[in-house]
Amino acid sequence: MVESPNTFDEMLRAIDDPRTPYDAYYKWFSQENVKDLMRKSQQAEDFFRKIGITFNVYGQEEAQERLIPFDIVPRIIAAREWKQLERGIEQRVRAINAFLHDIYHRQEIIRAGRVPKELIATNEAYLPEMIGVNPPGGVYTHIVGTDLVRTGENEFFVLEDNARTPSGVSYMLENRETMLQMFPELFPKLKVRPVSSYPQLLRRSLANCAPDGTQGKPTVAVLTPGIHNSAYFEHAFLADQMGAELVEAHDLRVENGKVAMRTTQGYQAIDVLYRRVDDEYLDPLTFNPESMLGVPGIMDVYRAGGITIANAPGTGIADDKALYSYMPDIVEFYTGERAILKNVPTYRCSEDDSLKYVLENLAELVVKEVHGSGGYGMLVGPAASRKELSEFEKKLRARPSNYIAQPTLALSTVPILTKAGLAPRHVDLRPFVLVSPNKIDIVPGGLTRVALKKGSLVVNSSQGGGTKDTWVLGD
Amino acid sequence: MLGKTAGGLFWMYRYFERAENTARLLEAGWRIALTRGEDDSNEWESVVATAGSAATYNAKYDTYDSANVVNFLLRDKDNPSSVMSSIEAARSNARLVRTALSSEVWEATNECWMALKEALTRPVSDRNLYDTLSAIRFRTSVVRGALHGTMLRNDIFSFSRLGTFLERADNTARILDVKYYVLLPSAAFVGSKMDNVQWEVILRSVSAEQSYRWLNGGDTTPMGIADFLLLDRRMPRSLAFCYANIGEQLEALAREYGERHECHALADRMCNRLNSATIQSVFEEGLHEFLTESISCTSMLAGLIESDFSFYE
Q1: What contacts B293, CB < 8 A, 6 or more positions away?
Q2: First-last CA distance in chain B
Q3: Are residues A287 and A77 in contact, defined by beta-carbon separation less than 8 angstroms?
Q4: Do B18 and B164 belong together in one domain?
Q5: B85 and B23 together in one domain
Q6: A311 and A399 in one domain?
Q7: Deepest in the core among A111, A179, B292, B293, taking most CB within 10 A?
Q8: A340-395 pLDDT tens trace
Q9: Do B3 and A236 touch (CB under 8 A)?
Q10: What is the span of the domain harbouring residue A390?
């Protein structure tokens, strides 16, 4: 695919003409030697390997532990831009929590006719077990990773809301750690805002959501599917940074109305469980009976208010791709304000008119599975071969309600470092949001994912994407 | 601490100790083979037996030649006690208990794994064996150093040390048991060339030939060697030293947790037995019997620690 001249590059307005947030960085970069910087890149990789920041790729025996490629050119966001994003994200996350409470209680939004009933009722991500349940502190999504893309100076769109168990925050933290080691001089010069408080904020935010009646300091634990999970490094990292235990299902059982973990001195009750296990595996008694990753009976404890599960079960309905197109309405319905952040225009293939349009314009659209994630099972029309297009068309006709389609956005680019110097690549941004009863925290930064292949729009690490450090500048 | 974490630490350090012991054993066998010349198959056979891997080895090979044995002990994936298998297992336990490790210990472990994985990708030639064995010693030493230099002295440390010393006690007893016949008084017509070689293997496989000579002024007797490896508490690989440390760590756990278990009772019994024994009494009782009982007590103790501290469900 040819780089469109309309693509917004966040660093350069034109050759050798940096935009304001990048002024100081660009000046610095111009005086550096590309060869030396390439050596730094290698150092960064060695550093990641040494501390073991790896992820596992499913179904690849040999490359079991892979590094996500890291690019040493930062993605820089001006203070003013960040403030606007912050407001928009906070508004959206508030709306999502209000929405979740509503659809598991009175369902006002359905009564008001703003969201179709069947979209909820027949949705796998909607858990009837959560109806009438009040999560401790009223918080459903303790951690959200809002995926944003940019197409112009002030054009930001929300691509996905990731309200289940968003991952990637460990990369935000370790990327920064690496950059601090390699380019310490740049941070004070540019007034880059720190992100290192995230683990403490996370701990505090989770502790503030502990069940009523928790005695003393709440016991927090991180539940991981185990060392073979693709994000195990992150689970261990966060537990370590928070000073919380990292538990697996077989460390837990239900005892005296609490979920307890097996310690060297017997079972000890847990108050808050930050789980990195999907809903369906959480409790074999309630959901998937085959699950080895879950704790039998944990849902009964939860419903009785004996434990906080973060995020709450059933939050997936809020980031479901079929619901995505209703988000502007949802924000308006619960906040009474217009959505600050835009949605990408979305065609619901379940609707005849839309399906017709999508089929006619397949080569220009991005088509996604409603329940898919990680970039699997999606079609990028402009990059697909004729054969791929016709194969996808068959799938689409067979199960239209399984898909949504969006125009191919001209995602912004930020340069990466190559042997030949700077070269623009498409990026997205995932800031991390922490929700507690009275407060929403957004750490100034996030995970910038970058498509390393020239022209590619797919930034997912499972599809050859890399990451960058994200610098939010102070005032 | 989670029971699983205690178990992970215990096994992480057991496997590191095992990797070191296997490398040391290999080095001893290698030295003998070099000085022996022609037929060294008996020596290699006893090396494999000492490593406790005879059954796995025999399932794969018919004869004991140095190339096969070296490969089997260093890097064979089918051999769960090979250096590489042990390092893999140590690291995978370390990943499991990462939250309990200081970042220095974790990084040393990860770097050890990366370096040895690289060094052991292909069979190691005779010419490179010495360097490879040095690398193993060096890498595992860094992990140990990081443990001593950076870890809190609490239950995390205790379970790590218990793993090390249980594995070591088991290893030392097995080395002696495989060779016990050359240490019997009947074999004491000192000076026969063969026995000198055998004794040297024993001392070398616990890296103690120098310290033994230094302490005993060159007076090498079977009883002296047995005394040194069993009862001498100055010797960091002797049974008495290992058990003194096991006892100390279990005491620390009893203090920290305010509770004593069956494992404490058994460890006390073993410590008393080693404290009150003399090498004469051991030989009167029967060296082989003494060793067999030690081995089975050590394994029983490991089982008790596992259940007393809820390593598993």
Answers
A1: none
A2: 15
A3: no
A4: no
A5: yes
A6: no
A7: A179
A8: 999 999 999 989 999 999 999 999 999 988 876 656 678 888 888 999 999 999 99
A9: no
A10: 347-407
Indicate if A358 and A446 belong to the same structural domain.
no
| For range A274-293, the mean pLDDT | 90
A181 touches chain B (CB under 8 A): no
* Chosen domain end from A407, A426, A452: A407
Averaged pLDDT for residues B67-84:
95
Q: If pLDDT is split at 50, 70 and 90, which confidence band does B180 have?
A: confident
Give the range of the structural domain holding residue B291, as residue numbers without chain letter: 153-313
Tens of pLDDT, residue by residue over A42-91, are 999 888 888 877 766 555 444 467 788 999 999 999 999 999 999 999 99
Q: Are B2 and A49 inside 8 Å of each other by CB? A: no
The reply to whether B1 touches chain A by the CB within 8 Å rule is: yes
Does residue A370 share a domain with residue A437? no
pLDDT over 80 at A186, yes or no: yes
- Same domain? For A74 and A123 the reply is yes
Which residue of A178, A222, A264 is the best one to mutate when testing the B interface, meaning the one whose CB has the most B CBs within 10 A? Answer: A264
Evaluate whether A424 touches A14 at the Cβ level (below 8 Å).
no
What is the number of domains present in chain A?
2
Cβ–Cβ gap A264/B257 under 8 Å: yes
Whether A3 is in a domain gets the answer no
Are A273 and A383 in the same domain?
Answer: no
Chain B interface includes A118 (CB < 8 A): no
Q: Do B99 and A240 touch (CB under 8 A)?
A: yes
pLDDT of the residue at A2: 39
| A18 lies in some domain | yes
- From B98's Cα to the closest Cα of chain A, the distance in A is 6
CB-nearest to A227 from B95, B107, B259 is B95
A286 located within any domain: yes
Coil vs helix vs strand at A314: coil
pLDDT, residue B223, reads: 85
Q: Using CB atoms within 10 A of its CB, is residue A395 exposed (0-12), middle (13-18) or buried (19+)?
A: middle
Whether residue B125 is found in the same domain as residue B91: yes
pLDDT mean across residues, chain B:
91
**Helices (runs of H) and strands (runs of E) counted in chain B:** 16, 0
Same domain? For B40 and B184 the reply is no
Q: Which chain A residues are Cβ-neighbours of B260 within 8 angstroms? A: none
Interchain CB distance below 8 Å, B3 and A262: yes
User: What is the rounded CA–CA span in Å between residue B204 and residue A187?
Assistant: 55
In a domain, A458, yes or no: yes
Domain boundary at B110, B132, B150, which?
Answer: B150
Order of all β-strands in the sheet with A347-348: A347-348, A403-407, A365-369, A379-380
Interface predicted TM-score (ipTM) of this complex, two decimals: 0.83
Token pair recorded at residue B7: 């178990």
